[in-house]
User: Fold these one by one.
Assistant:
Number 1:
Amino acid sequence: MADAQGASVSFDLKEVVAVKKMLANASLSSADRGRLLQSIGVEMEAQTQERFDTQKSPDGNSWKALAQKTKDYYNSQGWAARSILVGEGTLRDSITSEVQGGAWAVLVGATMEYAAVHQFGKEIVPKSAKALFVSGYGMLKKVNIPARPYLGVSSDDAKAIEDAVANFLGGKAGVK
């Protein structure tokens, strides 16, 4: 999902076969289900934030490198140590999760208005001027921001979620 207010992905726990089997045999109260989903959401937030360090999408592909001109601009500003999509950390720090009521689902997303641009990529053109001013580049007729997916569930993420569900269910007395 992408909109002007951020970007998010929805992950249905029952899409993971092992989790589906565990949940089919579990008898959880509404409060227990909420706690389980909330803990999974927190785990998914951490997994998503880790992608800003690894600079890899959930499918394991490396993000497209910064353009040399962008690197040169960062160097000129004393920002040489900045990694892709991190800057001051605002996007990474905006990652949040929300339990979807009535479903076995957790919504994980970023709340920054530009989050979708980085998740999905975008060509930006001026709306009312002939060109855009971009620091380090000058005036441009358009800017192409490549997709650098950070939201989603990798196979390692799914395994961590399976483990979290198994641990949660194993610690619940009376869960069948």
Number 2:
Amino acid sequence: MDHSNTHDSAGASHGSYKSYILGFIFSVILTALSFGVVVGQVFPASTAVPALAILALVQVLVHLTFFLHMNASSEQRWNVVAFTFTILTAAIVVGGSLWIMHNVSVNMMSR
């Protein structure tokens, strides 16, 4: 059995065992680091939250790269565009909701 990347009829690439194992190892390491930051109280709370956010972002990138095989190749261009649109839409919805809730809170507290 060939362990290199294979392509199905739609041109989508599937990763090798090596890429899946590397992705799994990176994911476990990042999860352990996040757990260690929280349980070990390595950083003060004001620093722990940004550290956890950075570790979460790196974990998302690991998953996108090693498990979803998103990269800069021409085969993946439409997947990356769709993913970017989804992230942009989610950011607008979450940001807009937070903005509305903040404005409601400010206006309700003034009365």
